[in-house]
Amino acid sequence: MVFLSIVNYVRARGPDEIWRKRRIFKLAAHYIGRRRNCYSVAVRNVHRALVYATKARKLKKEDMKELWDTRITSACEQHNITRFSLKEGLERANIALDRKSLSDLACWEPRTFECLAAVAKQKLELDGFVDGVDKKHPTGVNLNLKDVMLDAWLKERKN
């Protein structure tokens, strides 16, 4: 478009408006009715949806942390150790595993988690650590490091 005077140039909104509206309409493509076709309605609904999406990303992280903690706690109860004791024992044994890794082990590799719990318990006994933080008394099987070692498992498999 060629403008011979500055007045006509100022009044023309140009291609910027087309692309701005197109971006909003693209985000509103799955809506129904005027929410999809009318720009003034679509822009409100798209902005609201983007706000919800931003909040949901933070909530998803919190939900995952809660799920991982629940899995770790329930696996610890099976092996008669509290979650705090497990974390403290692994930390003292220089085993650095985060929540997600521990929960995956608890779900998909229970034998490995059992060995980690036994190592943590053994390390706490060697250090003379008394768990005074968690007042819960876990109900589960008492672990002994010798019971979950590879040699004992191999002997069991041969018999």
- How many strand units? 0
- Please bin the fraction of helical residues: 55-70%
Shape: rod-shaped
Q: Number of domains in the coordinates? A: 2
CATH superfamily of the largest domain: Ribosomal protein L20, C-terminal domain
Residue stretches low in confidence (pLDDT < 50, at least 5 long) are none
Q: Number of helical segments?
A: 8
| CATH-derived architecture of the largest domain | Orthogonal Bundle
N-to-C order of helices and strands? HHHHHHHH
Q: State the secondary-structure class.
A: mainly alpha
**Mean pLDDT over the residues:** 83
Strand content: under 5%
Rg from C-alpha positions?
Answer: 30 Å
In short:
The chain has eight helices and no strands.
Explain what the structure shows.
This protein is mainly alpha-helical. The chain is built from eight helices and no strands. The chain is rod-shaped, with a radius of gyration of 30 Å.
Topology (SSEs and partners):
Blueprint lengths: L5 H6 L3 H13 L6 H4 L1 H40 L4 H10 L6 H10 L1 H18 L22 H9 L1
Helix pairs in contact: 2-4, 4-6, 5-7, 6-7
List descriptors:
159 residues, c-terminal domain of poly(a) binding protein, rRNA binding, mainly alpha, Ribosomal_bL20
